[in-house]
Design a protein that fits this description.
Layout: H1 2-28, H2 30-49, H3 53-83, H4 89-122
Helix pairs in contact: 1-2, 2-3, 3-4
Active site: 70
GO cellular component, one term: plasma membrane
GO molecular function, one term: metal ion binding
């Protein structure tokens, strides 16, 4: 029974660390802060236009993908800077790869946003 309790406690601790990491990202990382503001704007837009359940699912997945990759990119940059604080071509390449992954996710999120909101915006009666 003790082993099962240790498993549950360690999972709970892991969750606490994850929440702490999310708050640290939001508090300290400008790129994550910008993405969070964009996410909030998209949530308000979804409420305003009363988007469908399927559109909410796609929008939520896009937001989660971009925010997650921003966090992973930050972690990769921090590790790279810790390992080699001075400029190094290979470290720069690794950072560029991580930033490229965020770019792809953001591009897909923009496309999803256009696919969701274009019909609502075009059909607005002013």
């Amino acid at each position: 029974m003790k082993k099962k309790n240790n498993f549950i406690i360690s999972r709970l601790k892991g969750g606490v660390y994850a929440v702490k990491g999310a708050f640290l990202l939001l508090k300290t990382e400008p790129s994550v802060q910008v993405q969070a503001i964009i996410a909030i704007c998209m949530i308000f837009a979804g409420c305003y236009f009363n988007i469908s359940k399927e559109e909410w699912i796609l929008q939520t997945l896009a937001i989660g993908l971009v925010m997650s990759l921003e966090g992973a990119n930050t972690a990769i940059e921090e590790i790279a800077d810790f390992i080699h604080p001075d400029f190094h071509q290979k470290i720069g390449l690794i950072k560029d790869f991580a930033a490229g992954a965020v770019f792809f996710a953001a591009l897909v999120a923009v496309i999803i946003g256009i696919l969701i909101y274009y019909p609502y915006i075009v059909n607005i009666n002013l």
